[in-house]
Amino acid sequence: MSKVDDFDYEKLLSLLPRHKILKPVDLSRANLPVWRWPPLKSYNGFTSDERIRNWKIGIYLLNIGAIKKPAHCDICKKVGSVGFHSENYYDIRMDPFLCKSCHTILHLRFQFPESWKKLAQMSIIGKETWFSILSLQEIDLAKFIRQNKSKYYPYPKII
Ligand SMILES: [Zn+2]
To answer: For the chain, what is the domain count?
Structure first.
C-alpha cells in the first residue's frame, strides 16, 4: 500500500490525548503481561514487536491503576466498555480509548473506507479531532518519529 508523505504527522500527534500517569511506575521492574496471540501486522509503520510492547505497557498501567479508563468511547462517545487504541505506539499516554465497534471500523478503514467515513462524519462535532484527520491510506508515523528524533522517540521515560 502506498505511503502518504504529505500527511500532517505533527498535527496528529498534537491532537492525540495526553493521559496522566496517576502513580510512580518503574517499567524496568514491571511484571508485564504476556502476549498470547500471533504477531500483529504493522500499523502506522510500527512493527509487531513495537505494537505488542505498547499493549503490554498499557495493560500493566491499567492493572496497577496508573491510567484510568474513561467511561465512554473517544469516537462515538457511547458509554460502555473501552480499550486502548494506539496511533503512536511509542507513548501509551497518547492512546485514545475506543469501543470495540469503533476500533474495528478504524483498523479496517483501508479495506472499508465507507464504513469509516460514515462513523467519522457522525462523530465529528465541528472541530478537528485526531480521528477526523486520519488518512485512508497507510501512513508511516513510526518513521516520522524516528527520523525526527523528536521528543516522541526513543520510548519516553513516562514517569
Ligand atoms: Zn465507539
So the answer is: 1
CA of 91 to the centre of ligand 1 (A): 22
For residue 99, what are the domain limits? Answer: 9-148
Give the distance (Å) from ligand 1 centre to CA of residue 119.
Answer: 9
Phi, psi torsion values for 145, nearest 5 degrees: -65, -45
Annotate 47-69 with b (16+ C-beta within 10 A) or e (fewer): eeebbbbbbbbbbbbbeeebbee
Q: Find the 113 Cα to ligand 1 centroid distance in Å.
A: 16
User: Quick check: is 93 in a domain?
Assistant: yes
Q: Is residue 156 one of the residues assigned to a domain? A: no
In angstroms, the CA 140 to CA 104 distance is 20
Q: Mind listing the pLDDT tens digit for each residue in 95-113?
A: 999 999 999 999 999 999 9
Judge whether 44 and 85 are in contact, CB under 8 Å: no
This prediction has a pTM of 0.90
* Residue carrying C-alpha cell 501512513: 139
Is the pLDDT at 158 greater than 50? The verdict is yes
Q: How far is the CA of 105 from the centre of ligand 1 (A)?
A: 9
